[in-house]
Amino acid sequence: MKLVILGGGGFRVPLVYGALLGDTGKPRVEEVVLHDVSTERLRAIEHVLARQAARHGRDLPVRTTTDLDDAVAGADFVFSAIRVGGLDGRTADERVALDHGLLGQETTGPGGIAYGLRTVPVAMHVAERVAALAPDAWVINFTNPAGMITEAMRGVLGDRVVGICDSPIGLIRRACAALGLDPARATPGYVGLNHLGWLRGLTYDGRDVLPDLLADDHALQQVEEGRIFGADWVRTLGALPNEYLYYYYFNRESVAALGRQTRGEALLGQQDRFYTEVCEHPSRALEVWERTRRERDQSYMADTRDITDAGERDAVDLAAGGYEGIALALMAAIARGEPSTMILNVRNGAAVPGLPADAVVEIPCSVTGAGIRPLATEPLPGRFLGLVQQVKAVEQTTIEAALTRSPRLAVAAFALHPLVDSVSVARRLFEDYRARIPSFAAVFDA
Ligand code: G6P
Ligand code: MN
Asked: Residues in domain Glycosyl hydrolase family 4 C-terminal (predicted)?
């Protein structure tokens, strides 16, 4: 099978390649094509992958290209993991919002809307090229904001595009570890949108064990979400929230902490050093990547953990199997018919009552050789449903704004977001993003 990775010069590509090297099933990926807009980044990642293959003792050919059509033609699977505007764009997404006293974050709040606005047109172009040149390919979308981008690409690719995120499975693994249970045997009642969901139940041997976890102070302390949200709040909710909900439930604290330094700002120097060092010392490429990856994983959501004294990241989080594990399991389920239940970003249909049928939601799905089937979820009480409905409306307004290149709808998307407190601030956000980020301006100047 031919696998194409868009954003192939990205830092996490070696995770995927490592997982492919270890894949022994049949059919499996026999050819990898990396596409990126930056030849320098492609070259650096190529060095890392070459060392990985040598260490593993397997030859899995890698080709690089900056030509999108050349990359996708005849692909069986396309992983889309692009970052339109690069890390500079992310940093501006975050900083502009903070300048207005609002949350400055990659995917949540105004930063996520700005990121979505400039990413949708590029993602649509990708979808069109895949539809033309690899009509039978499956597209696995990692590109953030993942729910919104998957929903936009569905307009061209329909059920052939599915979005993934590592945060729900991370939460479930942590919950299971705290209870001493095997996550592979648990059935999670996870429901919501990407980066906006809750674990509302956890069935094990036919019984819901989530109430046991919520009632147990000691066990909750072992789950990062238990520590950051606090036992009292998760009991009040009756659910374990996705870690990204910290930005809603503890918005002031997040704004204060991120205002000192955003995640994008923290990563800027590290990222530059990584690409430079690898290109200058290709023989050390894998060691440099491994060191940088440890630093990056350790510091992930460090602000949230600092505010709440939640301590270091859990070992279960740092263990392998995040994005690459999900992507590989999904590919295996589709290509080999190895059935699997996984939490994916898919068309709602009737699975989550109260959300539009065409909305992309993040819920458990059954995946087989025949395709992906979303599983029905328990109706959401108002304290959850109100938020997902509002944020889904914002996502859909953002998609519409980007597709029609409408400043008025873009302002509406900002203004309707629950973390934006004034329509006049929404107007200023739009103007500031337009002035600060060339790829954002390009959407509306076209
Ligand atoms: C998690 C989320 C991704 C997000 C990433 C950011 O993996 O699920 O959606 O992009 O974290 O990590 P970073 O190290 O770039 O801050
Ligand atoms: Mn994610």
From this structure: 190-420
Query: What are the backbone angles phi and psi of residue 32, rounded to the nearest 5°?
Result: -120, 130
Task: Please tell me the distance from the alpha carbon of residue 367 to that of residue 79, in angstroms, as a whole number.
Answer: 17
Contacts of 223 (CB under 8 A, 6+ apart): 171, 174, 175, 177, 178, 213, 240, 314
Distance 54 CA to ligand 2 centre (A): 31
Tens digit of each residue's pLDDT (9 = 90 or more) over 12-29: 999 999 999 999 999 999
Q: How far is it, in rounded angstroms, from Cα 73 to Cα 53?
A: 25
Per-residue model confidence as pLDDT tens digits over 334-363: 999 989 999 999 999 999 999 999 999 999
Q: How far apart are CA 392 and CA 115, in angstroms?
A: 16
CB 203 within 8 A of CB 211: no
The arithmetic mean of pLDDT across residues 223-249, rounded, is: 97
Among 103, 355, 384, residue whose Cα is nearest residue 236: 384
The pLDDT-based confidence of 316 (bands split at 50, 70, 90) is: confident
Query: Other C-beta atoms within 10 Å of 385: how many?
Result: 17
Of the candidates 96, 103, 109, 102, which has an alpha carbon nearest to the alpha carbon of residue 430? 96
Percent of the chain, pLDDT > 70? 99
Pocket of ligand 1, candidates 11, 83, 144, 244: which has the most ligand atoms within 8 Å of its Cβ, to mutate? 144
Q: What is the pLDDT of residue 215?
A: 98
Residues 6 or more apart whose CB falls under 8 angstroms from that of 364 comprise 187, 188, 190, 341, 342, 343, 374, 375, 377
**pLDDT over 60 at 59, yes or no:** yes
CA dist., res. 214 & res. 208, Å (int): 11
Phi-psi region at 349: left, alpha or beta (left = phi > 0; alpha = psi -120 to 50): left
For tokens 């597209």, the residue is 139
Euclidean distance between CA atoms 205 and 104, whole angstroms? 42
Ligand 1 centroid to Cα of residue 111, in Å, is: 14
DSSP 371: E
Ligand 2 center from residue 144 Cα (angstroms): 7
* Cis bond before residue 356 (omega within 30° of 0): no
Does ligand 1 lie within 6 Å of residue 166's CB atom?
A: yes
Which pLDDT score is estimated for 315? 73
According to DSSP, the β-strands at 77-80 and 2-6 are parallel
* Section 232-236 average pLDDT: 98
